[in-house]
Design brief:
By secondary structure, this protein is mainly α. Helix content is about 40%, strand content about 0%. The protein is elongated. The relative contact order is 0.06. Keywords: ATP synthesis, CF(0), Hydrogen ion transport, Ion transport, Membrane, Mitochondrion, Transmembrane, Transmembrane helix, Transport. One of its GO terms (cellular component) is proton-transporting ATP synthase complex. It is a single-pass membrane protein. Pfam families: ATP-synt_8.
Length: about 55
């Protein structure tokens, strides 16, 4: 069963995580969001009960 041999795949996984962590992730985190969150006060809504005709 070749899938139990971690010899070739462990290095591939390790290099892909290092690539993601060192190169791709800082580039993605440097983008500014287009819709930043605002400090709006939350509005409360009045909940009305649902009137079921069979009760």
């Amino acid at each position: 069963m070749p899938q139990l041999n971690p010899n070739p795949w462990f290095l591939i996984m390790l290099m892909s995580w290092i690539t993601f962590s060192m190169i791709i992730q800082p580039k993605l985190l440097s983008f500014t969001p287009t819709n930043p969150p605002s400090n709006k006060t939350p509005t409360t809504t009045k909940n009305t009960p649902w009137i079921w005709p069979w009760t």
